[in-house]
Give the backbone structure.
Amino acid sequence: MTSAFQSQRSQDGSQAHVLENKGAMVAVLLVEDNPADVMAIRQALKQEVSDRFQIINSDNLSLAIQQLQVEESPIGVVLLDLELSDSNDIEAVQEISRCAPQVPIVVLTGRDDDEVGRQALRHGAQDYLCKTTLKPESLAKSLNHAIERQQILESLRHSQTHLEEQQTFLRSIMNASPTLMAVKDLAGFYLVANDSLAALYGTTPEQMIGHREHCVNPSQAQARLHEQEELKVVQEKQERQIDQEPCQDLNGGVRWLQSIRRPLLGHSGEVECVLVVMTDVTVRQQAERNLWEQAERSRLLGQLTHQIRESLKLPDILHTAASQVRRFLQVDRVIIYSLLRRQSVDLKAMDYGKDYGTLEDGGGALATVYKFWATQNAMQEQLHGVVGFESREQIIEGVSHWIKTGGGLASQVVLAQIEALKVRSLLVVPILKGEYFLQEDHLKGLIGDPVDNSPDSSSDNFPGDFAEGHALDPEEQGQEDGSQGSECGRLWGVLVAHHCADERAWPLWEQDFLRNLSEQLVIAIQQATLYDHLSKVNRKLEQLATMDGLTGIPNRRFFDQTLHQEWCRGQRGGQPLALIVADIDFFKPYNDHYGHLAGDDCLQQVAQALAKVARRSTDLAFRYGGEEFAIILPDTTLTGAIAVAQQVLDHLWSLALEHAHSKVAKQVTLSLGLASFVPSLNQDPDDLIQRADQALFMAKEAGRNRAIALGAHSDEQLSVPVLHPQTNTNPSAEI
C-alpha cells in the first residue's frame, strides 16, 4: 500500500467515509484470479481516470476478507469477480457484505446473465458489470456511482437510527414526567398519552391511543368541557387554560388539576393537533392554605436562627439562644443544660427577667428529671420529646412519676429546687443529636481527629463529645438511667423554660416552634465545634496536598514553597543554597517497553532513592514533574552537593533496575545538574533553577548517566568534576 493512499484515511478510521469528494484517491480491492483480467482492469481505470483509483489485488476470497479487516488499509470499493476458485457466485457477495457492510461492491462476471446480476444486487452489491462488454468509462462510472450510493445509504441509515433514538428519548421523558400530558387530533382522538395521564384514568397509554376522552374519563361532563375547550383552541389558534378543576381519582378522592391546551401548528400554519398538559395542584392548594399560618413563625424562627448563628463561640451561641427564647415566649427563666457527661450536668446558659429565686447551679438537680421527661415523651413520639406542664400540680405529678421509676433520694432535692425557683409552669425541649452529629463522626473517621492541646481549644467543644467516646454510644447511655437507649443516646441536652408569675398553657405551635428552634440550635452548636475541628484538619489536608500521590515525596507545589523559603533564609544568613535537578535517562522508551505500571514503579524507586540520600532533616527530595526530580540542600556548598550527587548515582546504580532500551546502560540511570548559590538581593530562586537546568543539559549532552555541577559564575564549571556511578561496587549494597 502506497503512502499516498494511506494519507486518505479519515480520522475516525471509518471505511464508509474514505471518499469525501470526487477528486480523492480511492482504494479499489480487485478480487480477481485471472492475471489477464487484472491487467485489463488496471489499464482501463488508468486510461479513464489516471491515478484516481489505487488497485489492490486479491486472487481469492479469503485474502480479500483479510484485506478488508486491515484497519491501516481502508478500502473504498470492492470490485468482485463471481467466478473465483474458493467461492460460489452470490456467496462471495454475501461474505464480503457481512465482513464489511460499509464498503460498496461492484460485481464482475464473464457471463452476460441478468438474473445473476439481480441476485447480486439483492444481496448487497451496488452494480453488476459483464467483462465481455466492459468499457473503461463504464467501469469508472460504475465505481463512482457505487461509492456515492453507499455513502447515501449510510447517511440514511444513520439518520433513521438517530430519529428512532430521539423518539424513544422523547417518549421516556414524557413517561418520566409527573405532569399529565397528551396530544389529540382535531377530532379529539388521542395520538399520544403519557403514563401519568393514563394512571389517572386507570388505563394505559396504548389503550388510550385512537379513543376520544369520553371513552376513558369517568366524568362525561368533564370530557364534554374539555372537548369544548379544545374546539376553541383549534378555532382561535390560541392556548386556553383552566386554573383549577376537580377530578375524582380511582380511590374516590378529589384531585385538583390545572390544565393548559395549546395548538400545534403544521408547516402551512394551520392547527394539526392539540397539546394537553395538566398539573396536579392538590398539594399546592393545601400548602397555600397552611402557608399564611407558618409565614410569621418562619420569619421569627429565621430571626432567632440568624442571631444564634452570628457567633461560632459556643458560650455566645447558648446565651443568645436562652435570651431570645425567653423574650419570644415571654417567660421568666430559660436554662440550657448539657447532659452528655456521665458524672455531671453542665449548666451552659441561663437568662431570666424578674428575680423569682436563683440557685448556684441553676437547679442542676432538676436536670435528671428533665432528661427523664424528654426521653419518655420522645419514645411516645410526642413532638420529639417536647413536654409541657401547665401548672404546679402537673409538675408535681410528673416528678412523682419519675420517683416511681427510680428517682430515689434525689427526689426530695428536686422538689426543693422547684419550690426555691418558684416554678408554676414548665416546658422542656430536648436538644437531640441528629444526622449532623453522624456526619461529623463519619468525617472524623475519614480524616482523623486532630489533637490540639492548646488552652483555648477545648472551650468551644461539646462537653465529652470528642474527649469521651462513650458519650456518643446510645446503648451505654440508655443503660445509665435505665431507660431505652434509642433517644437517650441521641440527647445532647435540654432547653427548659420556667414561668413563675402564674400558670400558663404551652400551645402546640409553641412546642413545635421550639422543637424546630432546637434543631437549628444544635446545628449552630455543631458548627462551632466543627469550625475548630476543621481548622485543624485543614492544616493536615494542606500538608497532604503538598505530597505527590504516586511517589510519596513532596510535589512541585511544595518544591516552589520550600525553595522560596530557603532562598529567603539564605539571604538573611548568608549561607549557600544548593540544588540538584535529576532526569531519568530515556524514560519514554522505558515506559513504551515495560508499560506504564512498570514506569510508575520505576518513578517510585527513583524517588525513594533520592529521598534516602537526602539524609539531613533540612534536605528534601521532590518530584519536579514527569520523570524529573529535584533535591534542595540548604547550607550546602557546591562541594557538598557534588558528594550528594555521587551518592545518588551510586545508589541508583546499585539498585540495578533493568532498562533494555537505554542508550547509556542496561539499567536505569540518571542525569543530574548541580548548582549552588549564596542567595543575594540581585538574584532570585529562578536563577538557581536555571543554573541547575543548564548543568543538567550539559550532563545529557555529555552522554547522560552522570552529574555536572555549576557554581554561581561561569568560570566555576571548569574546576568541577564530571561524576559517574561507581560501577565496580556491589549492586546490592546500600549507601
User: Anything to note?
Assistant: Residues 1-21, 452-485, 729-735 have pLDDT under 50 and may be disordered. The longest helix spans residues 136-176. The longest strand covers residues 254-265. The chain has 23 helices and 20 strands.
